[in-house]
Sequence to fold (215 residues):
Amino acid sequence: MLLGVPMNNIPVRIRVRYSKVGNLRFIGHLDTQRLFERALRRSGLPLRYTQGFKKHIRLNLASALPLGFISTAELLDFWLGEPIEEQEIWQRLQSALPLEIRINDLKQVENVLPSLQASLLSSEYKITLPKLVTSEQFQQKLEQLLAQPGIPISRRDKTIDYKPLILGYSISTEESVVNLRLSSTPTGNARPDDLLQLLGIDPANCMIERVGLNF
Fold:
């Protein structure tokens, strides 16, 4: 499908949903942004740049994925200066990316939409528990934690209550898998590795995957 022709030099906003797996789970948010900047330059697409003396590619990533996590649900927006077929954008960008970054979906979105970071409400995570921790043990620990009037946790010399940031969960007893929905707003951002530590489980012994971003 040919993307709509921008009127009056209005940029074309492209939204990409991608997976980040393998060893790339050990690179941080800023390095991921630089990786996409390099890939977009190599793609040869007619990119839109910021204004000012030091111009940058217009690029907006959603919430930072913590080190060690994999994901099938990461999102980013970038802007083009002219219309290009979606399939061509997909092919050019994917060929410039490493194998451990895979584009799952790509589409044009309205420029009037708020930024990904500003509109994110919550994140969905899938946690595969270590062999020494059963689903029943995890559920018992979590229920005991949630029964407390508050769950204080220290972060950057501030204490926050994690209890209202845990929005939902489900546990598969057959597969030792936990699904968590956690708040991801600018004023209340929760991380599954923090929760695991509160439960006495080493996050390094778990496989943590982000499987959804909710806006």
Residues 120-214 form a domain with the Alpha-Beta Plaits fold (CATH 3.30.70). The two ends are 26 Å apart (CA to CA).
